[in-house]
Amino acid sequence: MSTDLLLAELRDAARAELGDAVALRRRLHENPELGLVLPETQRAVLDWLADVDCEVATGGQTSAVVATLRGGRPGPTLLLRADMDALPLREETDLPFASRHEGRMHACGHDAHVAMLAGAARVLARRRAELPGTVKLVFQPGEEGFGGARVLIDEGLLDAEPRVDAAFAIHVDSSLPLGRVALRPGPILASGDLLSIDLQGRGGHASMPHLAADPIPVACEIVMALQSFVTRRVDAFDPVVVSVTRIQAGTTANVIPPTAHLLGTIRSVSERAREAARDGVRRVAEGIAAAHGVDAKVHLVPGYPVTVNDAGFAEFARGVAAELVGEEAVVDMRAPIMGAEDFSYILQRVPGAIVFLGARPPGEAGEPLHSSRMRIDEDAMATGIALHAAVALRWLHGAAKPA
User: Which residues have a catalytic role annotated?
Assistant: First the structure.
């Protein structure tokens, strides 16, 4: 079958699945769940897969679902992944299917990711006989800070037979124009480490600061010094972002508190810059605190590693996307995004790529991901379904050994 005919058939098949995929996405959007255990989300996925000809397994420590499609003849195995969990924030949209649960919202598009991969499961299952190998469709909980991908890897996701040879994922982008596909080889998303600083001073009366060791101005100085450190000690072409997002101290107007606490994040796009940033943050905080007679304890908790697209797989995915949506709709990203992704753990083990799919509603500026007002144009999901299926079919045929 010609490539043009195959892609046309996949576009048509994806469009035919869109109605059901939208219904699934809205079901998930109304019932967002947090973390690693998502019983309602898992049930929705299992309901969908009940009439799909595939092998279904569920996670051990999590609510993961893995659907395995074995092709008509042996060959390599490609993993397709969708994350499932929501975020802990109050939804502020006027959608008729807005979250029914206060303080929980699908504000990162994971509901759409699940629906797109579910649609692709149907499309690929109908073409099972054409598959020279296996597709593992992974519905993964716990991406938002819980490391769900690492939990699944520890449970044998990549090593269980048939072993995974490569991996692919799609992330919607509510600020990118509808139908665009954006990607780059190499680093595409940053690492994300937790920064916590505890300052121990000496409390006292606010009218007599000379008799105390006030941790509040020390905290403020540390925040400003960290920004200077980033601009003066970090290579601008190997960027680092340090953001202090919370300062806690004090109880009332006339009391100097004995302690202050800072919380934030460190983002980088290389392990070299990551280590330099961690060392620098510790040096700056401890040095400033010591200069003011305050003790600083710096806690750095490693988070997700840098997400690195394999150059060869990224180029392959780019070519498939260009044929599917048109060359003009493919965006070659000049720089990584400083958000973090636990798909990084999978890409540390096998070659693969993650791409961004434009889903900005027409006529809107587009609320960013993680906004309480984030919305998407659900038509983008047809492209996502087709792209999952096209990447799987094309990669398996290209990677399979001749019969």
Answer: 304, 378
- Tokens 């059901």 belong to residue: 20
What is the phi/psi pair of residue 121, to 5°? -60, -45
**Which domain does 320 fall in, by range?**
3-189+306-399
- Cβ neighbour number for residue 335 with a 10 Å cutoff: 11
Read off the CATH number of the domain in which 288 is found. Answer: 3.30.70.360
Give the number of other Cβ atoms within 10 Å of residue 322's Cβ: 14
Give the model confidence (pLDDT) of 139-196 as tens digits: 999 999 999 999 999 999 999 999 999 999 999 999 999 999 999 999 999 999 999 9
For helices 311-325 and 380-399, what crossing angle results, to 10°? 130
CA–CA distance, 164 with 180 (Å, rounded to integer): 28
Q: How far is residue 247's CA from residue 223's CA, in Å, rounded to a whole number?
A: 10
Residues with Cβ within 8 Å of residue 170, at least 6 apart in sequence: 82, 113, 116, 354, 355, 356, 357, 384, 387, 388
Tell me the DSSP string of 238-254. S-EEEEEEEEEE-SSTT
* Cα torsion 292, 293, 299, 300: sign: positive
